[in-house]
Write a structure and sequence with these properties.
Elements lengths: L2 E7 L4 E8 L3 H9 L1 H4 L10 E6 L6 E7 L5 E12 L3 E9 L12 E10 L2 E9 L3 H9 L2 H9 L2 H6 L11 E4 L4 E8 L3 H9 L1 H7 L6 E7 L7 E8 L5 E12 L3 E8 L7 E10 L2 E9 L3 H8 L3 H17 L3
Antiparallel strand pairs: 1-2, 2-8, 3-4, 4-5, 5-6, 6-7, 7-8, 9-10, 10-16, 11-12, 12-13, 13-14, 14-15, 15-16
Length: 325
C-alpha cells in the first residue's frame, strides 16, 4: 500500500493523502497524464474507471465513468486549473449525470496533486478541498476515503508495468464502449512538433499516407473552428482513390482538436474525432477518441486494418518528418 499518511482537517475543509513510490517523479507523473494508465487506478478495485476524455492542460477537461460489479455506472469529470509538469496539477472535480453533464446536485471539490523526489523514489501529496463541512461529511460517508485507498493501492502495479506503455509500443486501439475507440501511440517528438505535423498541409502530405504505395493528392486543412477539411488518397498505380472530409468543431493548439469525419461519397453518418496531445517521457502521447454512430460501423471500420495503416503513418512521421526537424 503506497499511502503513508491521511490527514483530515475539518477546519480547513481539507483531506490530505500522502503516498510514496519507488519510481522517479517523471514515471509517476506520466501515470496521471496517460489515460490508459490513469483508468487502471482512478477508481476503486470494484469500480474501474474508463476515460473518454483526458486533456491534461490548463483549461482542459477529463470525463470518465466507473462501472460497478452489477454494471451500474458512476460518472465524473474534472477541469484542469493549473498544470506544472512533474511538479503539480490542480483540478476542479465533480460528479456527472447519465448524459455526462455536470450534476449540480452533488458537491464539487478542488484537488491539488503535488509531486516531489525522495531518497527512495517519489512522493505524491493529494489535497482535496471541500466547499463546506456538509459536503465534506457527505462525501466521506459515501465512501470517499475507502475508495481513494483502494484506487491508490493499485498504482504500484501500473508503475511496475513498463512494457505496456513503452515508447516502442505500436499504435493501439482500445474499445471504450459500444461506440467509442481510443487510438493511442507515443510519438517521438514534442507536442508542438506533432501538432504542426497534423495541421500543416505540406507536412501531412509527407507522412499521412498509410501503407507504402499511396499518395495524398488533396490535402485541404481546417484552420479555425467552423472550417471544413478534405483529404484524398490515391494508389501509386492510379487504380484506387478514397478520401475523408469534415468540420473542425474545437481547437485548442497545441493540445486538442475535435473534428467530424465522413468518407467522401458515402452519404452516411459521420464520426466525431477527438485528438489530444500530452507530453510524456520519450515524446508525445497521441490519443484519438473516435465516436461512431453505431457499434456495427465501429467494428466494420476497425476490421479494415485501420490501426495498421495509422501505425505505418506514425512511423513515417517519426522517420521522415520529426527526425529531420
Amino acid at each position: 500500500m503506497p499511502i503513508t499518511d491521511v490527514i483530515s482537517d475539518a477546519q480547513a475543509l481539507t483531506i490530505t493523502v500522502i503516498a510514496d513510490y519507488t519510481v522517479p517523479v517523471e514515471r509517476l507523473w506520466d501515470a496521471y497524464a496517460d489515460p490508459r494508465q490513469l483508468e487502471r487506478f482512478w477508481g476503486p478495485v470494484e469500480w474501474p474507471a474508463t476515460f473518454t476524455r483526458h486533456d491534461m492542460s490548463v483549461g482542459g477537461q477529463s470525463h470518465y465513468y466507473m462501472t460497478g460489479p452489477d454494471g451500474a455506472m458512476s460518472r465524473g469529470w474534472f477541469r484542469f486549473l493549473s498544470v506544472d509538469r512533474y511538479r503539480h496539477f490542480e483540478v476542479e472535480d465533480g460528479f456527472a449525470d447519465d448524459t455526462g453533464a455536470v450534476n449540480a446536485e452533488m458537491p464539487q471539490m478542488r484537488m491539488r496533486y503535488s509531486f516531489t523526489s525522495t531518497p527512495t523514489g517519489s512522493r505524491c501529496t493529494a489535497v482535496t478541498t471541500f466547499p463546506s463541512v456538509e459536503a465534506m461529511e457527505q462525501l466521506v460517508q459515501m465512501g470517499m476515503m475507502e475508495g481513494m485507498r483502494s484506487a491508490m493501492g493499485q498504482i504500484d502495479g501500473v508503475l511496475a508495468d513498463l512494457r505496456t506503455f513503452a515508447v516502442e509500443i505500436p499504435t493501439n486501439a482500445q474499445l471504450l464502449n459500444d461506440t467509442q475507440v481510443r487510438v493511442s501511440r507515443v510519438v517521438r517528438g514534442t507536442v508542438e512538433q506533432v501538432w504542426r505535423a497534423h495541421h500543416d498541409a505540406a507536412l501531412l502530405r509527407r507522412w499521412c499516407l498509410g501503407p507504402d504505395g499511396w499518395t495524398m493528392p488533396v490535402c485541404e486543412t481546417a484552420a479555425k473552428v467552423g472550417d471544413r477539411y478534405r483529404y484524398e488518397w490515391a494508389s501509386a498505380d492510379g487504380t484506387q482513390r478514397f478520401g475523408f472530409e469534415g468540420e473542425l468543431l474545437e481547437s485548442s493548439p497545441p493540445t486538442r482538436a475535435v473534428t467530424t469525419e465522413q468518407m467522401i461519397g458515402t452519404g452516411g453518418p459521420s464520426t466525431r474525432n477527438e485528438l489530444t496531445l500530452v507530453p510524456v517521457q520519450g515524446g508525445t502521447l497521441l490519443s484519438l477518441v473516435i465516436t461512431y454512430p453505431s457499434k456495427e460501423l465501429r467494428d466494420m471500420i476497425l476490421g479494415t486494418g485501420m490501426t495498421g495503416g495509422m501505425e505505418a503513418s506514425y512511423a513515417r512521421l517519426e522517420r521522415e518528418v520529426l527526425a529531420a526537424s
